Amino acid sequence: MNRMYSPYRLWSVFRLLLSFYLLIKKKSRFFGVTPLPPQKLASTITMLGASFIKLAQVLATRNDFFDAQYLGALKTLHDDLPPMSKKEYERVMHRAFATLPFIRFNPTPIASASIGQVHEAWLDEETKVAVKLRREGIEKRVRADIRIVSFFNRIFRPLFSHTTRHSVESVIAEFSVMIVQECSMNQERANLEKFSHMYAASGVIFPVPYGQYCCDDALVMSYEQGWRFDDRESITASGIDIIPLIDKLVRFYTDQMLVKGYFHADPHPGNLLVTPEGQLVLLDFGMVKRVSNPTRIAIIELLRAANEQDYEAYVSASKRLGTVAYDAPTAELAEFTQRMFEIFANDALDSSSMQQLAFQVLEQTRNLPFKLPQEAIYILRVSAIIEGLGTTYIENFNGIKDILPILQRNIPRALGMKDSLLESIIDEIKHLPDDLHAARETLRRASRGELVVELSPLQLESIGQNVENAIRPIVVALMLGLGAMGAWMGGAQEVAYVLLGAAMMRLWYQ
């Protein structure tokens, strides 16, 4: 049997997904099976490899899914893996380079991740490059993993509520698309080129690809040197002030997510370097995402409401973002939001006390309909990673008291406002003819009775769910009634009476 579908691997995947199910549903066991303990869960994920590491990293953004111990274990996951075997390495090199363009090539990788491994090489005596090689057979393994996860998801699907099922399926759908894209070095090169062009004025350094040497198995780019962002000892010893760099990183991601709507979705410490000159370097462009305009606007409204401590407006924006079900109780969620803000804005609490109190609040609200739409997955992940980087240097660093003020200062830019009042007025005057035309067209359509009101996808989803909930008891009762009729016609009167009674009870207690 293909080892990608071996019985042991299938059992390990099933055991892992069953553990996720029990943890998400807050159940202690299922037919006598308990969830894997935190460290065993992490080691199983690492053993299963790239796909499951990426899936777990996405799930780790959900504080409401897992308690502190499990979140801690999931957040220790990294995709540093042993390098390819010599035989696999030689096959990839032969396929990638018909003729080696390098005067020197280090066969020992300097980094080895789940999708590829990176080597040092020299095009000439002065031009040092980084060569990222795609792992042999990784795309085939990833596609096999997606099929396995999708199969088991269909088995577990009926066990989840509509809201939780929606979140889990969003995670799987987003993870499936992104990890397949990560397996292509051509796609990563295209992402890098587009990103470098779009953010050329950001002040952040990006590698420069050498397109003539690149292919789907290899990405050749300039070699960028620096310390990992979380290497506090080296950065501090060099005399670099990290606080302005954290501010710059937050402003850079504000520009990506709220202004341009095109962002690097994997800024973990290994992908962020600090040069000896105190500049930021961003690496690894396998995961680059686009934020749709409605999502971007919802995030801006969310930040504005958070800054103004308008918790009902915050909940309303969360519904538009899709992280809360459209028909969720606003007052209850506003109270929950206020309590969370008060915890994280309290300078008297240390980080462990904050986390403990936050989990207590989350435990009390675990039945509220939180959701995880596809567009929000990587936004939440990026936010969590940046917050984690900040805590390396600043005690009690968190998104509410440290990141929110920076984001708030950048909201005018996100809304398209210019740097000066005069520029803003000139820009508004330029758009005035279009605005007047739009207003006149709206009045004309209203007078003709042709004005169309569109429902948002979230409203349609909520209506569809309500209709489904209303129809389900009727369908079940109808099926029971038909069964009763069949039993009566077959001479089984007692069975017919039971089925008919069940049908009536189902209608009565709908």
Mean pLDDT over the residues = 79
Rounded radius of gyration (Å): 27 Å
Question: Which stretches are poorly predicted, pLDDT < 50 over at least 5 residues?
Answer: none
Number of strands: 10
Order of helices and strands: HHHHHEEEEHHHEEHHEEEEHHHHHHHHHH
Approximate helicity band: 55-70%
Number of helical stretches of at least 4 residues: 20
Measured by DSSP, the beta-strand proportion falls in 5-15%
Structural class: alpha+beta
Question: Span from first to last CA?
Answer: 49 Å
Query: Which word captures the global form?
Result: globular
What is the number of independent domains? Answer: 5
Described by strand count, sense and barrel closure, the largest sheet is: 5 strands, antiparallel
Tell me what you see in this structure.
With 510 residues, the chain is of the alpha+beta class. It folds into 5 domains: 3-79 and 142-180, no CATH class; 81-136 and 184-223, Phosphorylase Kinase, domain 1, CATH 3.30.200.20; 228-417, no CATH class; 421-452; 463-508. The chain contains 20 helices and 10 strands. It has helices at 7-24, 38-48, 50-59, 68-75, 86-96, 138-156, 162-182, 185-198, 232-237, 242-260, 293-307, 311-321, 330-344, 351-364, 374-391, 399-409, 411-414, 421-448, 457-489, 493-508, and strands spanning 104-105, 111-112, 116-122, 128-134, 218-222, 227-228, 262-264, 272-274, 280-282, 288-290. Helix 1 crosses helix 6, helix 11 crosses helix 16 (399-409) and helix 19 runs antiparallel to helix 20. The model has no long low-confidence stretch (mean pLDDT 79).
